[in-house]
Amino acid sequence: MEPPQAAAPQCNALAAAMAAGALATALALALWRPAPYGRHAEGASGWGFPVPARAAWMIQELPALAVPALWLAALSSPQQRARAAAPGNALPLALFLAHYAHRALIYPLRMRPGRATPAGIVLMAFAFCAYNGYMQARYFLAEAPPDAPLTPRALAGAAVWLAGWAVNLHADTALINLRRPGETGYKIPRGGAFELVSCANYFGEVLEWAGWAVAAWSAPAAAFAAYTAANLVPRAWQHHCWYRAKFPGYPRNRRAVIPFLL
Ligand code: NDP
């Protein structure tokens, strides 16, 4: 297998900073406290005014869609357009845009919002999505090999991405269906990957971006996959402990986020 495509210096530096951020995030979430939104929002005073959950998701996720989309629309030279159209660049970028079109525009309208999100969390997520949108767009549209081919590795990574997205979408839908309109409480999720793990949506998300990193085979993609796991695995563990404490009959064989392992 060929080595990961060498990114130009700026993408390398951006990816290294995100990888360092992933480590810091995992440590902060594991040793300090869960990110204060959703069921872990207690004690969120000091994190800013409450933003309604739907608006929070739209605002914070939009930059990851808008930055690459605007960059694509602004490409002017034939060389720039050729790099964007090279199959090894176009495929992972299209997958990234598909995910964020759903997450920023469709998911917030489908969800059954519970607690509001503190503005500080929205601001941090917005900054992360802007940074990540810029880094991934810069890689695929300015620094990636201009003739990147579609390799068997890229196709295999895209298949894993698709499987992860399917798990994530199914799990998000199962959670939406747990609440009737107006309800804000919690129930035990069942069906699909929830039979194996407490946080099937996070499992799907982690799988999705791991597959995507294999498809893109770049330092920025690897850094994003690492950050996603660093963010969601500790939170999944916190959700898992919360479920066990709240529901005495909670299924004992369920893991937190990685089936049969964790
Ligand atoms: P959660 O699973 O905490 O919550 C998702 C939604 O379902 C919320 O509206 C929540 O309500 C509701 N919900 C959760 N569990 C239950 C339950 N047992 N009974 C009833 N309702 C429930 O996920 P997040 O909000 O953290 O994430 C949402 C999506 O965004 C996921 O698909 C996740 O993978 C993705 N995400 C991706 C990240 C990344 O780094 N790439 C980071 C964070 C999220 P309430 O808000 O009231 O708890």
Descriptive terms for the model:
262 residues; mainly alpha; two-stranded antiparallel ribbon; 2 strands; 2% strand; globular; binds NADPH dihydro-nicotinamide-adenine-dinucleotide phosphate
**Helix/strand/pairing class, anyone?**
mainly alpha
Count of alpha and pi helical runs? 8
**Main beta-sheet strand count, sense and barrel state:** 2 strands, antiparallel
Tell me, rounded to a whole number, the average pLDDT: 95
How far the N terminus sits from the C terminus, by CA atoms, comes to: 29 Å
* Shape assignment: globular
Strand elements, count: 2
Task: Bin the strand percentage.
Answer: under 5%
Fraction in helix:
55-70%
Note the run of SSEs as H and E.
HEHHHEHHHH
Radius of gyration: 19 Å
Unreliable parts:
none
Q: What order do the strands of the largest sheet run in, or round the barrel if closed?
A: 1-2
- List the ions, cofactors and other small molecules found in this model: NADPH dihydro-nicotinamide-adenine-dinucleotide phosphate
What count of domains describes the coordinates?
1
What can you see in these coordinates?
InterPro entries: 3-oxo-5-alpha-steroid_4-DH, 3-oxo-5_a-steroid_4-DH_C, SRD5A/TECR. It is found in: Endoplasmic reticulum membrane; Microsome membrane. Pfam families: Steroid_dh. With 262 residues, this protein is mainly alpha-helical. The chain has one domain (9-246). It is 66% helix and 2% strand. The protein has 8 helices and 2 strands. The protein has a two-stranded antiparallel sheet with strand order 1-2. The longest helix is centred in the last third of the chain and has 28 residues, at 219-246. The model has no long low-confidence stretch (mean pLDDT 95). The structure holds NADPH dihydro-nicotinamide-adenine-dinucleotide phosphate. The site of NADPH dihydro-nicotinamide-adenine-dinucleotide phosphate has 23 residues, from helix 6, helix 7 and helix 8.
